[in-house]
Amino acid sequence: MKKSKTANPAAVPADAKTGYAAPQIPDRTELAGVRIAVLATRWNVGIVDALRAGARACLRDWGVSDEDVAEFRAPGAYEIPLAALHLLKKGRYDGVVALAAVIRGETPHFDYVAGECARGLMQVQIKTRKPVGFGVLTVNTVEQAWARAGQGRDNKGYEAAAAMLEMICLSRRLS
Ligand SMILES: Nc1c(NC[C@H](O)[C@H](O)[C@H](O)CO)[nH]c(=O)[nH]c1=O
Ligand SMILES: CC(=O)[C@@H](O)COP(=O)(O)O
């Protein structure tokens, strides 16, 4: 049977609910020397720190040594794009994992904060050509947030870090 040309086929069956098939973790040489910034915020900080734990677990699973990971804080999700741009623009880091928890309140403020955070991070990626893992929860309730910040690979911080690392491997393969 002809070998598939699609590189890095899904390593695990797709998640029944999301259809997400986590990538195969590459061998350690693919990420040799990579330097990662983990950027977290101060709103809903207990949830954000659970996302941070998930992101760090993913970086370890993919073989990124702790000495190649730096942690930073921004006030809130609205400030993350500018912070990510500062981290990436001088080439000090190969990628950023952006972590926040935006929880809807009584007013339309949620829409502006969440929307501009997402839009701003996409602009940072395109401008810098460096990946930013989108570990920003945009939820209606605290319960929804905790359901996405638990142990294991369902943690959105873990997922964001994995996506960012996969993009580093892909861009290295394509350059
Ligand atoms: N309500 C949430 C915010 N709001 C704060 C903004 O992100 C920003 O820091 C403020 O408007 C000052 O510029 N941020 C979150 O990350 N999560 C929230 O639920
Ligand atoms: C996402 C927010 O900014 C939100 O938590 C603010 O709450 P409110 O809309 O009640 O002011």
TrEMBL record:
Query: What biological-process terms (Gene Ontology) are attached?
Result: riboflavin biosynthetic process
Name the keywords, alphabetized: Riboflavin biosynthesis, Transferase
Reactions catalysed, semicolon-separated, are: (2S)-2-hydroxy-3-oxobutyl phosphate + 5-amino-6-(D-ribitylamino)uracil = 6,7-dimethyl-8-(1-D-ribityl)lumazine + phosphate + 2 H2O + H(+)
GO MF terms held by the record:
6,7-dimethyl-8-ribityllumazine synthase activity
- Per the UniProt entry, the Enzyme Commission number(s) are 2.5.1.78
Q: Which Gene3D superfamilies match?
A: Lumazine/riboflavin synthase (3.40.50.960)
UniProt-annotated catalytic positions: H109 (proton donor)
- Where 5-amino-6-(D-ribitylamino)uracil binds, per the record, is at W43, A77, Y78, E79, A101, V102, I103, F134
What Gene Ontology terms describe where this protein resides (cellular component)?
A: cytosol; riboflavin synthase complex
Chain residues that bind (2S)-2-hydroxy-3-oxobutyl phosphate: E106, T107, R148
Please report a single Pfam family linked to this protein.
Answer: DMRL_synthase
Q: In which pathway does it act?
A: Cofactor biosynthesis; riboflavin biosynthesis; riboflavin from 2-hydroxy-3-oxobutyl phosphate and 5-amino-6-(D-ribitylamino)uracil: step 1/2
Q: What does this protein do?
A: Catalyzes the formation of 6,7-dimethyl-8-ribityllumazine by condensation of 5-amino-6-(D-ribitylamino)uracil with 3,4-dihydroxy-2-butanone 4-phosphate. This is the penultimate step in the biosynthesis of riboflavin.
Q: How does it assemble?
A: Forms an icosahedral capsid composed of 60 subunits, arranged as a dodecamer of pentamers.
Which family is annotated? Belongs to the DMRL synthase family.
Question: Any idea what this protein is called?
Answer: 6,7-dimethyl-8-ribityllumazine synthase
